[in-house]
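Changelog excerpt: complex records now keep ligands as SMILES alongside chain sequences, and the structure block spans every component. Example after the change:
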Amino acid sequence: MADEGLRVLVCVKRVPDSSSQVVLTPDQQAVDGRMAGYTVSPHEECAIELAVRLADATGGVATALSLGPGESAEQLRNALAVGCTAAVHVVADAVAFGPADVAREIAAVVKAHGDEGRGYDLVLLGNDAADTGDFQVGIRLAYALGLPVVNGVSTLEVVDGMVSAHVDGPDGAETYSVPTPMVATILEGGVEPRYPSLKGRMAAKKVEIEERSPSADPVGSHRVQLTLPPPAPSSVEILGEGPSAAAAVVDLFERLGVR
Amino acid sequence: MILLWLECDAAGVTDISLETVAFARSLAAAGGGIAIRAALIGEVPEAARDQLAAHGVDEVHHVSGPSYDAYAGAAWASALQDIRARTGCVVVAAAGSPRGNEVLAHLAARLDVPMAANVLSFSGLSPFEVTRQVAGGAALEEMRLSQRPALFTVAGHAWVATPADTPTSPAWHEESPAVAEADLLARVSARGETKEEGPGALTTARVVVGAGRGAGGPGGFDHVIELAGLLDGALGVSRVVTSLGWRPHHEQVGQTGSRISPELYIPCGISGAIQHWAGCSSSKTILAINTDAEAPMVTKAHYAVVGDMHEVVPAVVEELKRRRG
Ligand SMILES: Cc1cc2nc3c(=O)[nH]c(=O)nc-3n(C[C@H](O)[C@H](O)[C@H](O)COP(=O)(O)OP(=O)(O)OC[C@H]3O[C@@H](n4cnc5c(N)ncnc54)[C@H](O)[C@@H]3O)c2cc1C
Ligand SMILES: Nc1ncnc2c1ncn2[C@@H]1O[C@H](COP(=O)(O)O)[C@@H](O)[C@H]1O
């Protein structure tokens, strides 16, 4: 497989941008992104970057996959603009799909492509999605495929079919050595995602996205509803304005015993 | 019965795992005095025995042996699966730490049951409903866990790790359940240096000085670094700072960075987006320095100075030096 170049699948989810105000949909089943816009999680941006680097370094292919509504094509085009060269869109209402459903659908694509002789050496996902934060699709996917999975990966290298996956563990740096094919969930921080170039954007427009339907009806997410946490009342004490507040600040340090 | 997977470090059971025990005690009480079993996997420091008794654990399964010498998510879940099958526990929970979420997700996949990550509270037992953090804490999800066992992790800092009213003397079981070869494929095979634990380490620092977009550029950090140094503290930054390449990612505080809980956090030029707040909300005291009196970081802080960080921070540094003589 190594001489043919690595085949990497990277899974991204279209999510509402929650960096400013968060608004819920009227049925309280999802975060409404119509005002703030849509994005993918920072973890997934890093997963895309790793996928593209691995594919480029070996003359392989980085394919982006998303399960979501028609608009998810936007996130796939963004992935194509930064170096993915193929994309798969499982067209479905992502809100109705729980993490086990999503894992099953990704597995169905991986198996179908495998049967057609275009299987994957690596499947990369984010550690957790920015909206539902289930922390599990990658692991469920690994079980559905019968593959090993490493979680929370910062960077990885592949040499002769062996993956070295680096994780910032609870007591320090850890390395896992795992044979391909394997699944890895990526954490932000190991690589800097690149910005799309004009050339990349143009190329992205030309790629034909493979559209698929879900392989089964969703079981669902077991969500009853979403709510917004009540705003905490402000009890801030303003120590002053500008540099003249310095004395009051150091007084505070003394009261807190931190100087 | 409730089964908990508890994590240990060199000093004993981790704080976030003890918070999970506190949550479990409340669940056990609501269920009419359900027993709490704890599984500890790998090396267990001596202090853990007293902690488990003080925190009201009824039975302890200590899992060790060659298969458990190096961490493997699948092997850890396989041990929990084995204990659960033997004890018939209807709830399995762990801390909402990276490992806690990972191990419970493995167990959920193996048992083909749902798993709720980062639970804050439960509202009913039948049906069992929990509320959990989603979107980095910007929203809450009420989720129904009808299948058994019910699997979840407990969000950090949602519960206080108080000892039980009545300590227990837990029965201790030494075990070494067999692990399938496939579950050892993805296993830690090498470790780097252990993390520094000095005053400069972000997650353990007593004081953290934060800097965000207000720093203005890669050269805008000298004064905040000097202040952090004077206070034996660490520098923490926002994601804007790391994604612009001004500072390295390991200094990032927030949902996709480190979670800090210092005595004092001093965010300078940080707006206080929910994803940043997710990483700093458990600071004991927050002193915000920001030009905008309406910034969320200012309104959520305990104390604030409204002003330009490039003027306020140097003045604070001068005042500190002056008083120290
Ligand atoms: C899924 C997801 C995960 C994320 N994870 C994280 C994370 O882990 N950590 C994180 O930090 N962010 C994270 N973010 C990004 C987050 O939403 C915000 O975009 C980010 O925190 C904003 O950084 P900032 O406060 O530095 O910048 P801004 O929001 O631009 O705020 C700058 C602040 O500085 C003030 N200011 C400007 N000039 C000065 C000056 N001279 N003196 C004093 N004050 C000044 C302004 O009034 C303003 O309040 C995440 C976002 C998403 C969608
Ligand atoms: N609808 C989706 N389409 C593609 N990938 C997804 C989808 N949902 C989740 N994922 C992937 O699974 C990761 C973990 O998601 P979660 O377990 O829901 O927190 C995400 O970071 C994505 O990489």
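Chain A touches chain B through 84 residues (CB under 8 Å). The mean pLDDT of chain A is 95.
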